Structure of Response regulator transcription factor:
Amino acid sequence: MRVVVADDAALFREGVARLLTDAGFEVTGKVGDAQALLELVRADPPDVVIVDIRMPPGFTTEGLDAARELRETHPGVGVLVLSAHVEPHYALRLLDSDARGAGYLLKERVTDLGELADAVRRVAAGGLVIDPGVVAQLVGRKRVDDPLEALSEREREVLSVMAEGRSNQGICERLFLSPKTVEAYVGSVFTKLGLHQGPDDNRRVLAVLAYLRR
């Protein structure tokens, strides 16, 4: 699998590239700004782009903007945006109603090679990846007449893992539950929140995120 890494910090960029190489990925490009990233992808599209949310020259949302542009111009290229901070509004900007092959991960997760490799593979396969820290903030925020209060503690756990972009099998593995038990919890969560499960895992995740962002 071919991956491009974009980050203005050379040491971080080289570190991520080394981790990916050790995990069996082919790093085909390393760049330090969003414009160079766009030009590189146009010339030789990879399977996945990993990009810092803040890039030169303004260090605001250049990386995020580049990721969103690539989703439009190169829909077959997965994009994984990295951030140093939990910023749910940026994560949600990356994911719209047609989102596929996109993810938002905190930079601190990159030190876990297994988690990084898993995120890259899921994005490359067209899945969605949301950092657990973002999900926790969305689930944990207080709202007037909060419908989440109707969920049991286990149902909240299932909802949180689901919102990260995990399939039912992924929920089974994370929470050590059987497939039938997970199916029951997922059905209960959607019933209590008045949501439709959708035809695929991405639709299910987008429905949950749309609900949590309200």
Observations:
- The radius of gyration is 17 Å.
- Residues 179-193 form the longest helix (15 residues).
- The chain has two domains: 2-130, 135-212.
- Strands lie at 2-6, 26-31, 48-52, 78-83, 102-106, 128-130.
